[in-house]
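Methods — Computational structure assignment.
A single polypeptide chain was analysed. Its primary sequence is given first, followed by the predicted tertiary structure written as structure tokens.
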Amino acid sequence: MYLDSAYIAKYYVNESDSAGVRRLIGQADSLESSTWALAEVHCVFHRHMREGSITPAQCRRLAETFIAHVRSGIWCFTAVSESLLMRTAARMSLAPAEVFLRTGDAVHLTTACEIGATEVWTNDRHMLAAAPFFGLVGRSITQTTHPTG
């Protein structure tokens, strides 16, 4: 199961749909993502601290727990290499005008393609909408949408 950074972070922090994401993750055979998530998940933890929903000590504990899970192999990450970034750039150079993606989301979608995933789990509406351009099904716990066309 390929998850973007937001869904990985929801495993650790309490957000409105975290319980559903935790159930989903609990049923997965494998948990795949991009090494891009290493930085992004920590940024989510920091955002929660900045917004006051967690304390600095809680932020540090979440970061330590996440890294311990990474090191133990719970999360299987694919490296962001120069060649992966070149393939991301090539895909984006061919994207129609209606495809709106941030860099990290394009890297996630390319990574999912590279590892042979058929779907990507996220709550990001732009990523869900762009998934078919990458030949993927965009999935969310609140909706199953955007089959490949």
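Note: Helices lie at 5-12, 18-26, 36-51, 56-72, 82-93, 103-114, 125-130.
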